[in-house]
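Quick start: what a row looks like.
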Amino acid sequence: MSWAFLRDLLSGVNKYSTGIGRIWVAVVFMFRLLVYVAAAENIWKQEHDEFECNINQPGCENVCFDHFFPVSHIRLWALQLIMVSTPSLLVVFHVAYRENREKHHKQKLYKNPGKIDGGLLCTYLISLILKTGLEIVFLVLFYKLYNGFKIPRLVKCDIKPCPSTVDCYISKPTEKMIFLYFLVATSCLCIVLNLSELSYLIFKYSIKCYLKRHVKKRQ
């Protein structure tokens, strides 16, 4: 799968981000996207073929695998990366709207189309809320689908057509668990960064509005 579009999106968002926002972009690009492409994707590449049960009953192994891994970790991780990056498009589209509006009117309507103020501030805050919400949703989804953030070495399966309880073995459980913990840790870090940026922007523009009102009252 080509991730060039996501790389370009993150590069575009970086132009209009605050300092905390640029840290978020760096974390997503360096510690999530590159780790996924360089290492994690290969670890889960043959997860179905390497899942083995101590029985030759036709269909048993497939049913057990589908039960314990209803969605592939790596595909869910890829979906998470795409979904948490998508709200940033709102900011890019809003800046593009401002620039096109200036071209249409053939005059300077904004001091800087990429400056976070007015309607663009609202769009930026909405994108932060959406990114934080999606991160939390995916963490809960991971936890619910796999009964916690762990990869067991051995699972016992008694689902039909298995004639009895069979032992099934997961390949490279320790390696997979390390990457799963890394995924959870980076998601939590991104949530903290998003909430920090959200608080910073709200505080900054609340102070700005308060000072404006105070100056008007004095005048």
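That is the whole record. The first strand starts at residue 52 and ends at 53. The chain has a mean pLDDT of 82.
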